[in-house]
Write the structure tokens for this entry.
Amino acid sequence: MGNHSSVSTFLLWGFSSFPELQGLLFVLVFVSLLTILAANVSIMVAIKLRHNLHTPMYFLLCGLSFSETSVTLVIVPRMLADLLSDSKTMSLPECATQMFLFLGLAGNNCFIMAAMSYDRYSAICSPLRYAVLMSRQTCVQLLTASCVAGLLVSLCIVTTVFNLSFCDSNTIQHFFCDISPVVCLACDYTPYHAMAIFALSALVLVGSFILIMTSYVFIGSVVTKMPSAQGRHKAFSTCSSHLTVVCIHYGFASFVYLRPKDSDSFRGDMLMAVTYTVLTPLLNPIVYSLRNKEMQIALRKVLDSVRRLSPQTVNKRSLNTS
């Protein structure tokens, strides 16, 4: 970070523009956080416990659920604290750390989705070689590469941002340390910096999206040549959940990070970021559970196991036994 920066703390203005709504927002966001944790943890537990889900697709889905949950935990607890607190300050190192973790995990999500599209490509286009192409080792390598790539790009962006001079206002018009609200406070932010940050953001979003679309072009060409309508339907149904999640994720992310910015866009970006950081991690497990019978059965069995182990059930059994 640049030593010439005279700002040591930032004020996260965020939802202070809506003081009358902060209590309601706290309740809504808190309930959403609990739901996100419950939904994603349930998916991870179901995949871990059910042997029929020990496949590459579900292994990658488990990684995506963990990454989505981590993104939420980086942003939402601090948001909740600020909704209840009059002091919404954050030190410069804390801001840099939050931005690094958020961007790194968000980039990790993009690359995991690209890995999931490669899994679907391998299963549909090369079914006889699928076990070799998507071995356990390959899945671990894909997840590791996704994490490393996301964190490296994030490190480059954060280094660029926090080597700028922050010498004027320290009020961030956002509820967390996102790129645009922070760089607009810099005194020496130039088109060169804007181009570098845009290129790095595009590398993650556009690069991973191209990989996903390339996989689905090959999948589409193979599926359309299948003689059986039932076979075509089954092949497309295995991809529908992933495609739905991709559309949700990239739609929100592209709106926030790839469109031109102006000073009047921060409120819209902030509201969209709520959707991106809260709604997307909530929708992903819902999409996979609603559109996937195997996941529905696994979640039902996990919930039944939890119900049998609950204190009320144990007490009833002990009373019946006695």
